[in-house]
Amino acid sequence: MQKSFSLDLLKVGEQATIRQLDSSELPSKFYEMGLLPGTVIEVRHKGPFHGPIGLHILSSNLLIAIRKSEAAHIFVDK
Amino acid sequence: MKNPIVAFLGNPNVGKTSLFNRITKLHQHVGNYPGITVEKREGSVKANGKTYRVIDLPGTYTLFPTSMDEEIVYNVLADRNNPAHPDLVVVVAEPNNIKRSIVLYQQARELGVPAIFVVNMIDEVNAKGIDVDYQKLEAYLHTKVYTTDARNGKGIKQLIHAFDERPGYFPSQFAIEEPYKTALDEAKKAFPLHTEYQTWQFIAQENISFLTKDQQETLTDIRERYQLSPNVLQQTEAIKRNAKIEEDLKTVILQKDNHHLHRTNKIDKVLLHPVWGYIIFFFLLFLVFQLVFILSEPIMDWIDENFSALIDYAAGVLPEGPLSDLFTQGVLAGIGGIIIFVPQIAILFLLISLMEETGYMSRVVFLMDRWLRPYGLNGKSVIPLMSGVGCAVPAIMAARNIENTKERLVTMLVTPFMTCAARLPIYVVLISLVIPNETFLGFGLQGLVLNLLYILGVVAALVSAAALNKIIKNQHKSFLIFELPSYKSPDWRNVGTNMWEKTSSFLFQAGKIILAMAVILWVLGNFGPNDKFSNAEQYVLQANPALSEGELDEEVASFRLEHSFLGYMGMGIEPFVKPLGYDWKMGIGLISSFAAREVFVGTMATVYSLGEDIDPDDDEERETLLGRMRSEINRNTGEPSYNLASGISLLLFYAFAMQCMSTIAIMKRETGSWKWTLIQTVMMTGIAYIVAFIAYQLLK
């Protein structure tokens, strides 16, 4: 299995599984809104100039947006 | 017997408010939760032989609050002494987020509140590719599960019928294990009357407002001794609950292809596009403001005309005297000054709630966050800032859904810099006075200056946000996470109620203050300390015996104003406004328009003795006023009062100064403190003074 890397490196259209969130950097709201370890996500949108990232959570069919700086604290693998 | 309270709890975008509107119909009102300033939407419904109080709680994802709205929800549910504490909670879900809503449901039940579960938007269940085994779901939740569709009223009757359900036993779905068990056991000793989960919530949250100081200290002590971080506890709970629900519901909720999402995805490809997304957004923005001004104009003219007629009628019917004057020129004119803004505010909120209802507003947050972040703002600040172009009062209220305390505060502090509708009449009058009607690079110079003033408002808001961002300390880390809901056609019922709520809160809350100020100004302008006021006619006749009757009346009115309390106040502040290029007459305008900017034009008309009914939209009347203002000489400088220097200085003053009592009132209400309200007023008016001073000194 590939080593995990931070979510902001994913390109639009790529899918990955969340492995871990840096809990000291992110509030619990991230978990509560569905970004939990084991969740499969697909990057749907990226704002220009390091803008927000739109994530499709496959298991619940919901679309969540977070900042790029926050995505850097979420680790995924493909 | 007390009327039972039923509270609606749910994630944002589940149609909770539609459901609430369906059930309570128009039997609803907006109040405040005790002690805090978040709006409480409450209604009532008569059914099953009694009257239920129905409360629409703000949308939330969890009972661990991160914003003011969410804190309300927690306090209402967790604090048994809260006057809004419900007898039954209705947890509202939509097909796509049933699992996430179950977390909320479990939390509510484990706090000890009876709850039933509703899957709303049931008509979309097939398109969304969801298949639910309701019998199994009911068994799992230990409660009744209802299905509704708030848009067409399906299932509503059955739901209301269920308001007497009080599901009892609920087994905890969240096992608290080591390393937290020992800490929890110790905390339980301090809260013997509370359930285990309630106590857990106490440990896992900082600053629970309804606990006593002693209780809070006990909890802080336990947290410190066991080295517990609330954030980690909350995350632990979220992970455990979600993992268990995922496992338990494998055979209960089945998921297939979601057609709704395909459509949403297609639209988002355009609306969130790095180039097209912005072009469309700015086009829509332009369209919104055009519509606000174009659509409201005929209605405003109509109101204006009818109010003038009403005032004339009242003046004719009432016996002449100071009381009749107070009623017509003070009270009625004051009310007219409020109502005139209703069309603009109503239309602005019609368009904004359309953007919210369709799901587009979240896309705006997505597009704008990147550009607002450097200024210490948040993508969600877009809504208050945009609304600020209509009126700062509802705009400041729209800042409530910003989670971060600091970002919310900064947003509220800078929103009044945006060019609101009330500045427009002043701008129009002053620009036509001092800016030559020429073209510059093919554009009309006057229009260009007006555009510049709008841009100046945005720049002022952003620059001061950046400055405040450096000054104000941040209590929490800034973060942004929000849902991009599927696009849907708006629920007109919601749009209507939202529009009415926002407009009426302007009309009644701000209206009270504007009205009071109008009366005070009237008194100050209609009474004087000495006989120069009461015997004005004699003084004027002595000076100019040859005046015709019409001229005499105007001269007397002007002489009276000069020697009224207001006139003396204007002369009193003259030393302060002189460096800005104003004389005492303009000083009166500044004082009176402190209540509300739009008062300026009317006051100027009185000061220049043209009678009180000047309509700046009426070309002929405006020309008369303009002509009179043009020929006015500033007695300090001997130059025209309204020259380029003083005119620009005045424009800039109005662009920055906090000339609005309603904004001050709403800031006090929303921040709950006079401190920030005063800081804001001093900051804005201070900047206005300095900028106007520099502009005048450079240009004169």
TrEMBL record, chain A:
Entry annotated with the keyword DNA repair: no
The keyword Iron belongs to this UniProt entry's keyword annotation: yes
Pfam families linked: FeoA
GO molecular function, one term: transition metal ion binding
Protein origin, superkingdom: Bacteria
Ferrous iron transporter FeoA-like domain: residues covered: 5-78
Keyword annotations from UniProtKB, A to Z: Iron
Family annotation (InterPro entries): Fe-transptr_FeoA-like, FeoA, FeoA_core_dom, Transcriptional_repressor_C
Protein name in UniProt: Ferrous iron transport protein A
Species per Swiss-Prot/TrEMBL record: Sphingobacterium haloxyli
TrEMBL record, chain B:
SUPFAM superfamilies: P-loop containing nucleoside triphosphate hydrolases
A GO CC term attached to the entry: plasma membrane
GO MF entry, a single one: ferrous iron transmembrane transporter activity
Subcellular location: Cell inner membrane; Cell membrane
Protein residues bound to GTP 1: G10, N11, P12, N13, V14, G15, K16, T17, N120, M121, I122, D123
Binding, GTP 3: D56, L57, P58, G59
Segments crossing the lipid bilayer: 275-295, 331-355, 375-397, 409-435, 447-468, 506-525, 644-666, 678-699
Protein topology in the membrane: Multi-pass membrane protein
Keywords recorded for this protein, A-Z: Cell membrane, GTP-binding, Ion transport, Iron, Iron transport, Magnesium, Membrane, Metal-binding, Nucleotide-binding, Transmembrane, Transmembrane helix, Transport
Residues that hold GTP 2 according to the record: G35, I36, T37, V38, E39
Positions bound to Mg(2+): N21, T24
Residues covered by the FeoB-type G domain: 3-169
Gene3D superfamilies according to UniProt: P-loop containing nucleotide triphosphate hydrolases (3.40.50.300)
Protein family (similarity comment): Belongs to the TRAFAC class TrmE-Era-EngA-EngB-Septin-like GTPase superfamily. FeoB GTPase (TC 9.A.8) family.
Function: Probable transporter of a GTP-driven Fe(2+) uptake system.
Name listed for the protein in its UniProt record: Ferrous iron transport protein B
Species of origin: Sphingobacterium haloxyli
